[in-house]
Write a structure and sequence with these properties.
With 138 residues, the chain is of the alpha+beta class. It folds into two domains: 12-107, no CATH class; 108-138. It has three helices and six strands, in the order ααββββββα. The chain is flat, with a radius of gyration of 29 Å.
Amino acid sequence: MATPDDKTQPALPAESTIARASADLLEHLADKLGARASVQAVYGEPVTSGNITVIPIAEIAYGFGGGVGRDTTAAKNGEGGGGGGGAAARPRGFIVIKDGTAVYKPVRDPWVSIVVPLAACAAGMAAARLARRWAKRA
């Protein structure tokens, strides 16, 4: 049976308060980030001009984490809590609706247009050097 002086028994109301505060923080982060990382934040609203409508397409990713802590030793009495999150939104393309026909147009990543040819060139040069070294040895 625990005595009133026994500090090893955790106080349940305090732990549930910490957990509730942490959950509230994560909910608040999710609401704030969700409002900012959206198609409208990446492109804006769909645009209609004449008989053409353009609808933006974006990729949106979210990540959240949280923690709660409490030191229940007799020498120390600590509390904790925390949380964090992030969101990212990238343009992926758009849909053009014209004369009742919808066509998807992707947005190309400029790095792919630059890095892939440069990597292929570098790999070709390295392969040529290796082939010359092997030919000299043989």
